[in-house]
Amino acid sequence: MTDARQPGKEGGAVAPPDPWDPLVRVTHWLIALAVLLNAVLDEGGSALHVWVGWMVLAVLAIRLLWGVIGPAEARFSAFPPAPRAALRHMKALLRGRPREHRSHNPAGALMVYALWACLALISVTGLVMTDARSPVTIAEEKAAVAAGDWSVLASADDRAENGEIKEIAEEVHEVLANLLLLLAAVHVAGVAVESRALGRNLLRPMLTGSRRG
Amino acid sequence: MTLGAVPPRGPRSARRFSAALAVTVVLQTMAALFFVADAVADLAEDPAAPHSIFEALVALALILGVVMGVWQLRRTLAQMRQQERALDTARGSLAQVIEDQFDAWKLTPAERDVGLLALKGLDVAGIAEIRGAAQGTVRAQLTRIYAKAGVSGRAQFASWFVEDLLDPDPS
Prior knowledge:
The structure holds two protein chains of two kinds. Chain A is mostly helical.
């Protein structure tokens, strides 16, 4: 009696890690939470919104570092952007016979890069909009204004000179935020479809892993 | 089904440790980002102030901490993988030893199944339930297995396979 559920012994010759390594899991869910918070729940421009944005930058930074020095499946080299392979994968998926891959499948890999690009650009445009003031500073200034000290608004006037750039940044920030939500929805749908086609729950490796013990 | 119903404790605590390490590294990165931004703003304002220089030092220490944490996490994960492989190999080897010995005792397929379940620590009732057989049948099969193996009973049967692992004088 052998264990039929041992990693790498089911499906194709190679399969994504089950579970994914802890850093990939932690960063994945923090980003998901951050997107949910900043796109849906909190108010744009609020101190909380800026806090969350800064955290996204940090999470993105550590994940990108992990993409260089992390374990094999978490590295960029395991899932290079390959549009043609992604197309092939989508076709195979439509026929109901997707192949297993050692990391993200080629279509999933494109999604990962698209999401990262969106997150990075949204964060950077957010920094432009707030003059890269830290959330602590923003909260302090808001508290000062609320307490009747309007002097901070004078310094805000000094910063208003590159208003045009800020307007563009704001436009980009909003368009990309909507695109990000759209991509996230496609990502979730993709996981559902692929799970069904592979006959294997792809969500579980991102949570705790499928194996017992 | 793996040999032994009890999950291994080592790999499990290692997994918990690596998860805690990952959370710590992410928190450290957040702290580092905030502090570095603050330090950069202060340095831009007054580069020569002792306060600024100290902040820059702390920022550097935080970044170093992140890098070391990531490195430690990487090593822990690599070690876990290696241990898992070793464990798989050991499991495979033990399974092979058991298979070979069952061959040597010329057990029938039904007896092999019963023998393996007995080695896993199931009692007669449990084996009967899994195999959908009467307890009397299982008892008879166990008796035949012990006879073929030339052992007195279950304890001696089980110890047959661990004896070699308990060699007090490994040479």
